[in-house]
Design brief:
The protein is α/β, with parallel strands linked by helices. The chain has eleven helices and eleven strands. The protein folds into two domains: 223 residues, 2-enoyl-CoA Hydratase, Chain A, domain 1; 48 residues, Orthogonal Bundle (Lyase 2-enoyl-coa Hydratase, Chain  A, domain 2), CATH 1.10.12. It is 41% helix and 15% strand.
Length: 286
């Protein structure tokens, strides 16, 4: 899930834990490792996935991956989700990558199955119909960085540290070219500012005392997306994602198909009416 790298370029509802499997990577049976938050008020349309596995620095273990897959499956069918934001509930870390302690206890067959599930998770994030944003307020290493790269947009705090460090552990990350190869071959770690200079993240912000500066910037970015026509935004994402890996003629054909799907929408007519009447449009996602 390194295509993003190679392209380089206030009234919240309470936390709602998802139903999880009985086993837990940390041994704290029943404790959910992610939480889903649906924002309200001026943030209505923004949904957050909070990774909260402090004892393992949000490492991607079986339970965390299962809960993320379950949340994504549920949220992708919810038309009220206009922006999906990934963040951490653990100060100083976004996601430390794969849970190597857990993986060490697996057989070779189990490792193969888990790696396939991990790839499936990255694909599910990349294919999520609404725009996705990663708020990187701390370490994002290995699979943690790949998770962020699977998102459409990335915001990093100045204190963030990121890298594709799998080769330093004798492992192999996803495949890529040019910049991706350099980061994979060297296992180099980047600061937030270095990542922005390389086009790895969209924005870098100075970290604050609370350690959540990237989250606040990511939320502000999500708020910029909210007023736009939801169907047009989703179809625009499809056109870009599907068009990146094909020739120009095929890419134009994909764009044409997406545009055709947008023509009969109520939002398109509302957009033209608002322009004619010189008023802000009121999009409803239909």
């Amino acid at each position: 899930m390194l295509r993003a790298l190679t392209r380089a370029l206030r009234l919240p509802r309470p936390w709602r834990p998802l139903q999880t499997r009985s086993c837990a990577s940390d041994g704290a049976a029943g404790d959910p490792e992610i939480q889903v938050r649906v924002l309200a008020g001026p943030d209505q349309g923004i949904t957050e996935i909070l990774m909260n596995r402090p004892s393992a620095r949000n490492a991607l273990g079986n339970v965390l991956v299962s809960e993320l897959l379950e949340a994504l499956a549920r949220l992708r069918e919810d038309q009220q989700v206009r922006v999906l934001l990934f963040r951490s509930g653990v100060k100083g870390v976004f996601c430390a990558g794969a849970d190597l302690k857990e993986r060490e206890q697996m057989s070779e067959a189990e490792v193969g199955i888990f790696v396939q599930r991990l790839r499936g998770l990255m694909n599910e994030i990349a294919a999520f119909p609404a725009p996705t944003i990663a708020a990187m307020d701390g370490f994002a290493l290995g699979g943690g960085l790949e998770l962020a790269l699977a998102c459409d947009l990335r915001v990093a705090a100045s204190s963030a540290v990121m890298g594709l460090i799998e080769t330093t552990r004798g492992l192999l990350p996803g495949a890529g070219v040019a910049l991706a190869k350099e980061l994979i071959f060297t296992g180099r770690r980047l600061s937030g500012a270095q990542a922005q200079a390389l086009g790895l993240v969209n924005h870098t912000v100075p970290q604050n005392e609370e350690g959540n500066a990237a989250y606040h910037r990511a939320r502000a970015l999500a708020q910029e997306i909210l007023p736009q026509a939801p169907i047009a935004v989703r179809l625009g994402k499809v056109a870009i994602d599907r068009g990146m890996d094909v020739d120009i003629a095929s890419g134009m054909a994909i764009e044409g198909i997406c545009y055709a799907q947008n023509i009969p929408t109520q939002d398109r007519l509302e957009g033209m009416a608002a322009f004619r009447e010189k008023r802000p449009p009121r999009f409803v996602g239909k």
